Structure prediction request, 129 residues.
Amino acid sequence: MENRGGKNIYGKELILDLHECDISKFNRADLEIYLKKLCDLIDMERCDLHWWDYVGVPEEERDTEAHLVGTSVVQFIKTSDIVIHTLDILKKAYFNIFSCKDFDEKAAAEFSKEYFGGIIASQHVIDRI
Prediction:
């Protein structure tokens, strides 16, 4: 990516927490649409997509604790990955966008906020050296 202060920057990671989200979008179909649009926005090439949720899990085997009820998805991209964890009961979503290719983290955060109708509770960008 670049050299900053004598250190080579090999990537960056956006860590984003959204609260008060529209939980109707916490499903595979809407999350996949979000990932496609996000990758187009920040110019990332999508690769494998992996899910962890309760699709196909019998009701009696599902977790009910607020910090466990939700969907997790890993969207591998050519230059690393995008990870999302949603918490339905708490109306929260947690995002990690990591890439060795530069991207517009402000655009990614704003798009995420708009798509999920939430508020940004926390936003950090970390250079990977």
